[in-house]
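Annex B. Sample input.
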Amino acid sequence: MPLFFIVSGILFKPRSPWSYSMGRTRSLMLPYLVFFAVVLLFDNARSGERRCSIIEFG
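Annex B, continued. Sample output.
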């Protein structure tokens, strides 16, 4: 356990809050957007329609 704290202290790089939040947002949103695009393409291919079938208008 103490080894974890020693290694994390050695590898710590101070960054600005803006840089940290943008990097974190990118790393979390990229897999979400890729998965969403794959599901959307699969759903459109399965239904045979050329529109966004996630949004239904009535």
